Amino acid sequence: MSGHASNATIAVGEPAAGRGEALPYVVTLGESMGLLRQQVPGRLVTQRAMEFGFGGAESNVAIALSRLGVEAVWCGRLGTDSPGELIARELRAEGVHPRIVWDAAAPTGLMLKERPTAGTSRVVYYRSGSAGSRLAPDDLPAGLIEGAALVHVTGITPALSGSADAAVESALRRACAAGVPTSIDLNYRSALWGAAAAGARLSELVALADLVFAGDDEAALVAGARPVAELAAELRRLGPREAVIKLGERGCYVSAGDETLTRAAVPVTAVDTVGAGDAFVAGYLAEWLAGAPLAQRCDTAVRAGAFACLTAGDWEGLPRRADFALLDAGDPVQR
Fold it and tell me: For the whole model, what pTM was predicted?
């Protein structure tokens, strides 16, 4: 494979200027893609204007963590093209430290987000042979995984290619060997692989994780169809210490250690739900890393997920901690 690695703007894991110790950081890895977003609802063939940006589950989590005050590193491959340049630029602007392999032999993947009606959307992916799908174990710098406070992956990346699958497993195994906590969000994508293949492979990867996040339908791929509490228990039997079942507008159910907890969602009028699950995961992980109790982890998770629904875009509406107060504001005009 062609490519060359790019270091982050600052050296995460090394003492920052004016500090005597290294900053703890989270590592994520996966594919980020350019995103063409239809602005006006209706048939795409009648549209003449599109907005260009980017998205990706793992980079969404990295941005969300950064906004919540956690140092985050995103590892991935990008094409030497304008979409790749935009992704790298925006990640740095959001305080994320990218570790990029620039691949001159493959393009950055693209997503097309259509809006047939005001309340519906449809996403089409153009990622076959993309730079992101060529992610490989050697693309993860020596020492980066081993020095992390946590490594987070999703079930999207292993479905992209054999080398991307190997990169995810390598990251998890390196983290386990170094005593670094790991988390996985199942994030099943039916367009990438079938339910049987996904369930079998994700079961193996869940066994390497300390925390597992999944929608109840995704958890059923691994644990079989059963009540939510049993889904969480079955996921934990594979190895994780904590299982977090994301229930969307119904909130979440968590089994962690000897505790279980159900938390209702924060009611909002959703503008765009894309990225809400990533915000939820980042909210939970930010509090987990801070050693917060389970109730606080869940509260921040559901509030982050709710806030992300209030703005269109994959990551643009991800909250900062100060933004949570807006969910409780009685007056829509802040003075």
Answer: 0.91
- The dihedral built from the CA positions of residue 160, 156, 309 and 249, taken in this order, carries a sign that is positive
Marked catalytic residue, from 103, 210, 278, 314: 278
Candidates 210, 203, 213, 137; CA nearest to 180 is 210
Q: Is 278 annotated as catalytic?
A: yes
pLDDT digits (tens, 9 = 90+) for 41-54: 888 888 878 899 99
149-190, pLDDT tens digit by residue? 999 999 999 999 999 999 999 999 999 999 999 999 999 999
162, two tokens: 């054999």
CATH for 4-11+23-316, among 3.40.1190.20, 2.40.10.220, 3.30.565.10, 1.10.287.620? 3.40.1190.20
Pairing mode, strands 33-38 and 50-55? antiparallel
Question: Which of 52, 114, 121, 113 lies closest to 87 in space, CA to CA?
Answer: 52
